[in-house]
Specification:
The protein is α+β, with helices and mostly antiparallel strands. It is built from 2 helices and 10 strands. The protein has 2 domains: 58 residues, no CATH class; 72 residues, Immunoglobulin-like, CATH 2.60.40.1120. About 10% of the residues have low confidence.
Length: 139
């Protein structure tokens, strides 16, 4: 990973005050970033400066935008399938229902939250973090 990091916690001999040196370097970095498709970030924790290539940010975004087919099963505490359970993507109108064996398929994005509900059971909210078979137990 090509991340350039420099620390400003040590006394800086070039500048009279380390903080001024950090801000001058930050200004230069933003100029550099605007001409080379990079992004700079300064953290106040230890005054460190990081320059991140735009392609690294794009890779993270593509992972989050990836649509997957979520497959799973809705069961009760006794591992009995719950047919007709509703599975919805939070803040959308997209959803599906579980079949007679409790199985379902739903197209979601990594990072979406699904809501699984059925009458006489407590609803569950689950954040989708990876493409995997999901077994939802309703109580």
């Amino acid at each position: 990973m090509n991340i350039f990091t420099t620390e400003f916690s040590q006394p800086n001999r070039f500048f009279a005050y380390p903080t001024i040196g950090a801000w001058l370097l930050l200004s230069f970095t933003f100029f550099y970033a605007s001409t080379t498709s990079t992004q700079a970030q300064i953290t106040s924790k230890n005054d460190s400066l990081k320059v991140i290539k735009q392609s690294q940010l794009r890779d993270k975004k593509q992972t989050l935008d990836k649509t997957i087919t979520l497959k799973g099963q809705v069961v009760d505490e006794n591992e009995e399938p719950i047919p007709g359970a509703t599975i919805l993507i939070k803040n959308t109108t997209t959803g599906t229902t579980a079949n007679i064996d409790g199985y379902f398929n739903l197209n979601v994005k990594i990072g979406d939250t699904i809501i699984v509900r059925c009458s006489s059971f407590t609803s569950r909210r689950i954040k989708i973090e990876k493409e995997d078979f999901l077994k939802v137990v309703l109580k």
